[in-house]
Amino acid sequence: MDTLACTAASGEPAPSASPALPPAQLDDLLLHAARRVTAILDVLRPHVSLVDSSAGPQMRIEPLNDGLSALSQGEISLVRDRMEAVNRAIRNGDIEIKPGLSSARIANQKAALDALVPGPFGEAIRTAALGGSVPEYLAVVNGQIFPPGVTIELTANETAALIVALGLGRGAVENLLKLAGVAPEVIVPLALAMIAATAAIIVCAALSPKRAVGFKVAVIGPIIAVIPYPA
Fold first, then answer.
1. Looking at the whole model, is its pTM more than 0.70?
2. Gap between the Cα atoms of 87 and 104, Å rounded
3. pLDDT tens digits along 162-206
4. Residue 10 pLDDT exceeds 70
5. What distance lies between CA 78 and its chain's CA centroid?
6. DSSP bridge partners of 152
7. Please, what is the Cα angle at 150 between 170 and 121, to 5 degrees?
8. Which of 51, 49, 86, 48 is nearest to 68 (CA)?
9. Cα angle, residue 29 at apex, residues 113 and 179 outer, rounded to 5°
10. Pairwise CA distance, residues 188 & 195, whole Å
11. Where is the composition biased (Low complexity) (predicted)?
């Protein structure tokens, strides 16, 4: 009998086969994952349509070429689960869309956020949003069918503060997100997703007449991606 089997049989826990990664290595993995999600959305974009089926409006994949072969089986499963969640919210009336458009109106904010971007927005923010006292950074929240997420528009001052924080590093970005009321469990991956998009954020701010940026916050599986645009 081998050593592991003897150890387990004696009642002692078997040694871990996968020790915890150091924080720096974990950060690198999360940064890579955020960039990979953005790449996945880029691959999917030409193949996603909004249609009016017999069951009503829904998001559907219509492959135009073999581009989707770039996705792994695990990534395909994550995308399928996210699309099913969004289509379920559409059927339930939590998200209202018009086929042919890439945006949507959120009818039931809590349920829609659960479907579009599960996790990043804590219960306190959802309650505030439903009750009318909306934090400034959630002042503009529109459903985005593809990528399946929401758009959030910052003011010029918020954008300037974010760019300063991005220059100071992860800790400063995390503090900014804490002040904004982002759910604690996703502050690190969301901060790293913003860091991954730093160059695009700076360009979008320069392109905006208001010097402000908006974001599409997209979630594929456990990974968050941030896609900026000039607000």
1. yes
2. 12
3. 999 999 999 999 998 888 777 788 888 889 999 999 999 999 999
4. no
5. 13
6. 141, 215
7. 55
8. 48
9. 45
10. 11
11. 8-21
211's CB contacts (< 8 A; 6+ apart) are 156, 159, 160, 205
Whole-number Å distance between alpha carbons of 20 and 114: 29
Would you list the DSSP string of the chain? --HHHHHHHTTSPPPPSSPPPPHHHHHHHHHHHHHHHHHHHHHHGGGEEEEEETTEEEEEE--SSGGGGGS-HHHHHHHHHHHHHHHHHHHTTSEEE-TT-SEEEESSHHHHHHHHSTTTB-HHHHHHHHHT---GGGSSEEEETTTTEEEEE--HHHHHHHHHHHHH-HHHHHHHHHHHTB-GGGHHHHHHHHHHTHHHHHHHHHHSTTS-EEEEEEEETTEEEEEEEE-
Tell me the sheet residues that pair with 37: none
What are residue 217's DSSP bridge partners?
A: 150, 226
Residue (of 146, 137, 121) closest to 214 by Cα position:
137
